[in-house]
TrEMBL record:
GO terms for molecular function: D-serine ammonia-lyase activity. This is Alanine racemase. InterPro entries: Ala_racemase_N (IPR001608), D-amino_acid_metab_enzyme (IPR051466), D-ser_dehydrat-like_dom (IPR026956), D-ser_dehydrat-like_sf (IPR042208), PLP-binding_barrel (IPR029066). Pfam families: Ala_racemase_N (PF01168), D-ser_dehydrat (PF14031). Residues 242-337 form the D-serine dehydratase-like domain. GO terms for biological process: D-serine catabolic process. It comes from Anaerobacillus alkalidiazotrophicus.
Length: 354
């Protein structure tokens, strides 16, 4: 797994600049890279903290000295809440709340402990976790009555933007994403519940949402690397994709080329349903005549639209469809700069999914 340092820095700098230009905070989602090295790079570039998907990711980052952490996941399991107790003692940890039942369980776990900061998660169209706008006042009111929790924010994740059919649709989703957060915050403040943090920003939408008045924070993750899903959405270009997989040609047939990169290297992800612009299982740089049409566990099968110059043992770089999924398949990043290998970084939170 190769990581282009120049492109990574360019991508990180762009997010930082967008946040500064719009006078908002930036809290990158580290589930994309799962790397302490990259998280610290993002913090050095001005990130206010990090976002994680899983408690284990938070624990790894906290051990490395990163202490401002949003766990964007509604924890309720008793064993996880016990671990959260320990984590919260040494960090500024915030967790997602999306039901009164969950809030009661979290409150009970923090009896006699430091008050836990929580944010309400709103559904902005992904229809996964998150409550509806009309439910927010009831949940916010319930939280304010729980003595061990402090409500300070409202956030959402417009993951359905990955299925947009055009950049115009992405912009519309970004507007709607911000609207539900701002409406929710306004509804709470009308009943005297202050909402300090109003957080949005999937990778497809963050550039547009950052400009909307009232939003205080963006949380792009994939934007550190980008990938072919983002290219397909029109959000970026292949030249900005920092993560690639180095593959070798292991067999040449009349109508196909076989590479040593199957589903255990590239994953079977073809993007969100509806994103029709993602073709195959990754883009082979400099060989547009080859479509990576099929993956088995150890084999990537490329079909040919015209004659190719590729031959046995040749090496190629493949831009994956979904860099977040691919990063979790490897132990290390081989970091390169101007064509030279300059370092090797651990994927520190690889496999930390609990």
């Amino acid at each position: 797994m190769l990581l282009d340092l120049t492109k990574l820095e360019q991508n990180v700098n762009e997010i930082s600049t967008i946040a500064k230009t719009n006078n908002i905070k930036w809290r990158p989602h580290i589930k994309t890279h799962k790397s302490i090295q990259i998280a610290k790079m993002q913090m050095a570039k001005g990130a206010c903290g990090i976002t994680v998907a899983k408690l284990e990711e938070a624990e790894i980052m906290a051990e490395a000295g990163i202490t401002n952490i949003l766990i964007a996941y509604p924890l309720s399991n008793s064993r996880k809440l016990q671990r959260l107790q320990s984590l919260a003692e040494k960090t500024e940890t915030t967790i997602a709340i999306d039901s009164i039942e969950q809030a009661i369980l979290v409150n009970k776990a923090f009896v006699g402990r430091k008050r836990l900061e929580v944010w309400i998660k709103i559904n902005s169209g992904l229809n996964r976790c998150g409550i509806e706008v009309e439910e927010v006042v009831e949940l916010a009111t319930a939280i304010t009555k729980l003595p061990n929790l402090t409500l300070t924010g409202i956030f959402t994740h417009a993951g359905h933007s990955y299925a947009a059919s055009s950049l115009e649709e992405v912009k519309a989703i970004a507007t709607a994403e911000a609207k539900v957060v701002l409406q929710s915050a306004k509804a709470c403040e009308e009943v005297n519940i202050p909402i300090k943090h109003r957080s949005i920003g999937s990778t497809p939408t963050f550039k547009f949402g950052a400009k909307i008045k009232g939003i205080t924070e963006i949380r792009p993750g994939n934007a550190a690397f980008f990938d072919m899903c983002q290219v397909g959405l029109g959000v970026t270009t292949p030249s900005r994709c920092a993560l690639t997989i180095l593959a070798s040609v292991v067999s040449c047939k009349k109508e196909r080329i076989i590479f040593d990169t199957g589903s255990k290297a590239l994953s079977l992800d073809q993007g969100a349903h509806g994103n029709k612009s993602v073709v195959g299982y990754g883009s082979i740089i400099n060989y547009p005549e080859v479509t990576l049409a099929r993956l088995s566990e150890e084999h990537g099968v490329g079909t040919l639209s015209s004659k190719t110059s590729l031959k046995l043992t040749d090496k190629v770089q493949i831009i994956p469809n979904h860099s977040c999924a691919v990063a979790n398949l490897f132990d290390h990043y081989i970091v390169h700069h101007n064509g030279l290998i300059v370092d090797e970084w651990l994927v520190d939170a690889r496999g930390k999914m609990k």
